[in-house]
What we know:
Elements: H1 4-32, E1 36-41, H2 45-48, H3 54-74, E2 79-84, H4 92-98, H5 103-108, H6 119-129
Parallel strand pairs: 1-2
Protein name: Reductase
Pfam families: adh_short_C2
Organism: Rhipicephalus sanguineus (Brown dog tick)
Amino acid sequence: MLSTNAWKTVVDIVLNGTAIVTLDVGKRLIEAGKGANFLAISATYTKHGSGYVAPSAAAKSGVETLMMSLAAEWAKYGMRFNCIEPGPVYTKGASSRLDPDGRFTEEAVKGAIERQGEIPEVANLAVYLER
């Protein structure tokens, strides 16, 4: 069962952390007359939900809305905002803790590409979007 403290911690890191840094950096860039590209990483579970990710999904949904809102407000300053929403991506650390028996991976590979994503795929997209 998720505690209130756990909820607040995840939302504070994911949503509030992203907002505070983005707003501070963006305002400084606007004052300096410089444009920039901002990139956030979200997740597909913000659209359909998934077990055990409620605080992360809620916070990442907020990040997505923040990116869209700032794109509309700050485009006139040469600011661009993108958000990547990868599906499940294999990482050794997360998989060893969250999916030790491999059941999640079995479900994840039933998606469109029939496998989990890989970190270099997300990294390459990030580099492409930030050009």
